[in-house]
Design goal:
The protein is of the alpha+beta class. It is globular and about 40 Å long. β2 and β3 form a beta hairpin. A three-stranded antiparallel sheet has the order 1-3-2, covered by helices on one side. The model has no long low-confidence stretch (mean pLDDT 83).
């Protein structure tokens, strides 16, 4: 039997701390591909840095439909 790891769940308003601009863009693109809209933050709680904030979830339509016969 395998144990399943619980995936972290993102919610609107959650932030992700990034180390540099490249990481920020890469994570933003990955989340966009998953249907999660993000925005860039350069200051949070009075501290300068790089963060992504979750702003919305896109409704995704399935790409393929299968019929069971």
């Amino acid at each position: 039997m395998r144990c399943k790891r619980k995936e972290p769940v993102l919610q609107v308003g959650d932030t992700i701390r990034c180390h540099d601009k490249d990481e920020m863009v890469n994570i933003s693109m990955q989340l966009d591909n998953e249907g999660i809209d993000t925005d860039f933050l350069y200051e949070k709680d009075g501290k300068k840095g790089l963060w992504l904030v979750v702003v919305d979830f896109k409704k995704r339509e399935p790409k393929w439909f299968f019929e069971l016969s």
